[in-house]
């Protein structure tokens, strides 16, 4: 591979959407941010220079970061944030991955405006395991806030209430014609008839899983989270924040006398921090002469907002290729099993304050195994690597199982108050891990897109209700389960994942709804070094930011 250099200047830029102009944090003045392209095996060297008042760090979402954990990017996990006037060089190699990923800010809610595509092409002399597309088109799904996104979450954390919802969803930063004062900001995909387009779909929205469909065109799913899958055809897809999906769009053999809307709007199950609006873009066939004006505009249908069965059916279609060239290396034997509950709960309201949580004596909180993840003062990876600092920064007692099991999908127990903590799980190098993630219905069942840093995992099983440790594991798919970095824990259900802990470092696992993450829905793994030199995490680069 070769080395590719990028410079990310973090700077403010005035952007107008929905007739509302505001100054936003951007990379190089672009919204959405610049495209980063590499081939499998290439090294990326990205210098990030912070020219804004906000602290920032950049995460390369889905990149394995094999023995390069210092470049992963989540603030206070693998690095302290880059302060105003400072810079940091992210230096990492793309190993064993090809497809679509994305990069985004990983602190507070800055990723609302700081995100962009990360495209990994196959090695020079390799091709796709599907028909060579005529053209490749990244489409980032996002959320636009008229307000300052950091102010929105800060207010929620202070009052304990749900944050204000966004004002629009976007395709490549554009809300489209279904919003007021937005028709001129419409994403348009111009196509030629009789061609195959590769759409690289990225859900960079903060808090919403989204349905997506294009009128009168089916799509063939060929890749998810930068891993090829067995192709399957759909009319509607669902994509959670943190997921990427590559689809082939085959255009009609002759330019039809119509224009086609593409739509996205939320799939939402919980009590909801979502706005039920629709972003629209346009698929338009290029034709030499005929007037576009008289063409009818066709609109796709989308499932109901809470169509959980549709989603379960859709997600069950994803399968690894599991071929000799692209094997599914599913751990067949598990060294260590974990069972984590994920869900919302409450924290007590501080005395002499009124809160706007589920009741006025409580604040919203979110947790795994009843622990609401609290960010430390200095980065966990630093603290772990220079272990003399670890005292008081984190503890290693994150429970492998819930301390007090209950009926997770039934009536919740009386005491659902969560505890704050910076608790980690420590596992030896190369442990094969199984984690069952179980949604709780303490404040109503809700699906949660769980994302693991530093790894892909295999999704070996999923179901509704309480996970049954006797009867569910025999049904696990250990042959061709999908391999990904973000999975939706079904609303009122569970999902089981497996991974081989072959990447030493400290790795965050969290809900990719920013609101849930801010409320504490996360934890972190410490994967210890192995014996051999190539199984150890090297020391940090000298420009690693200080807290
Ligand atoms: Cu895309 Cu920790 O996130």
From TrEMBL:
Q: What class of enzyme is it?
A: oxidoreductase
Needs which cofactor? Answer: Cu cation
Keyword list (alphabetical) reads: Apoplast, Copper, Glycoprotein, Lignin degradation, Metal-binding, Oxidoreductase, Repeat, Secreted, Signal
SUPFAM superfamilies, sorted: Cupredoxins
Q: Give any GO molecular function from the UniProt entry.
A: oxidoreductase activity
Query: What CDD domains does UniProt report for this protein, alphabetically?
Result: CuRO_1_LCC_plant (cd13849), CuRO_2_LCC_plant (cd13875), CuRO_3_LCC_plant (cd13897)
Q: Which reaction does it catalyse?
A: 4 hydroquinone + O2 = 4 benzosemiquinone + 2 H2O
Record bears the keyword Signal? yes
One Pfam entry name: Cu-oxidase_3
Q: Where in the cell is it found?
A: Secreted, Extracellular space, Apoplast
Show the PROSITE patterns listed in the entry. MULTICOPPER_OXIDASE1 (PS00079), MULTICOPPER_OXIDASE2 (PS00080)
State the GO CC annotations: apoplast
> Which family does the similarity line name?
Belongs to the multicopper oxidase family.
What is the protein named?
Laccase
- Species name: Gossypium hirsutum
